[in-house]
Amino acid sequence: MSDRRSEESSGDEPSSSSISDEVWEQFLQDTERDIRKSAPKEPSARAREVTERLKGRKGEPEGWRTGPAWQEMNGRAARRRRAWAVIGVPLAIAVAVVAMRPSLIPGDPFGSTAGTDTATTPLPAETATPTAAPSAAAPGTPTLARPFAGSPALRWADGAAGIVLPKATALGAIPKDRVELALQQTRKLLVDANLNPDVVAGGRPRAALSVLDPKQPDVLDNLETSLRSPSKTHDPLFLFSRFDPKDVKQAGKVVKVRGRITFAKGKFGGVAVHADYTFVYPVVRAGGSTEVTRTIVRRVIDAELPDPTRYQVTPGRLTLLRYDEDAGNSACDIHDGYLHPQFPSQAPTGSAAPSGPSIDPYDRSRDIGKQEACGTVSRT
């Protein structure tokens, strides 16, 4: 994974500058020192593939009118991959320089009128895989009033409005209404697992669990175990976004969301749904703190609504085939079932030092679920 960084412009400072060279040099030195001391930490990817899935055979499929053929896809639960992530110092210095002297950037990248920030114009819905990470956002420090300041997520949709379903159409012999049901059930799973305030505050994801097929071996049992007794191998964060309310709480009511859902004919006679979404959570420490930081969670889910006339499944319930998660700004190697965001003024927590590559948690063009080691991130 590569760390996308802003290119710094060079050139002579206009003679009208009111900052002397000596003051400017001292500013740069102080900025680099402070950033190294207080850069927020955060982790990178962890992926999980469901332990069971349907498998057909040539001719009459295995389980025809008797039950699905379930088989392990990739062993037991995949490990959660989480790491310290330090904001890249050169990038942070570049942002600070631009904030102080925007004349270093040619043209007028932030618009000619400071009061009308075109960078806050909502983005259209994502319809295809991005080809690159979002460009650098206008500099800003997150606050309670502006929790997404300095983040490209400022232009993303708010909450469930960001989960836009494609128009359902028939898939050969599969009628339109079954496609619509598969899409709606997937959306219900995503919304409850990642946007329900009670779930985000550590509550039980009842609606999300209700759309999953209880006849799929181990999946619900594993999820129930993870909620009851979190561990490295049974971690609810594989599928649900949760913060410990004793430690942190959301800064405001808005979670920013960006991603897309697609559908196709599945391998098991039903509707296959692919979902890829990133959720950005601004949070503060519990107890009255006003210092805001952000945790970024990306989820990729593959599910299917199998043909109930060919397989022994629960009609209308989803079969999970894969669920990968990639979390940014949460301490490494803590497996208590909660995300643990790091704050600039906070001493690092977690046991693992960063050893993996640097990533941009906003980069939706990259694959997730490939990285084992703790890594670093370029921005939050």
Automatic annotation (TrEMBL):
The UniProt regions of compositional bias labelled Basic and acidic residues, in chain numbering, are 30-63, 361-370
Task: Locate the region Disordered.
Answer: 1-69, 108-141, 339-380
Q: Would the keyword Transmembrane helix turn up in this protein's UniProt record? A: yes
Question: Keywords in UniProt for this one?
Answer: Membrane, Transmembrane, Transmembrane helix
Q: Where are the transmembrane segments?
A: 83-100
Low complexity: compositionally biased ranges: 12-21, 116-141
Task: Identify this protein by name.
Answer: Uncharacterized protein
What organism does the UniProt record list as the source?
A: Streptomyces hyaluromycini
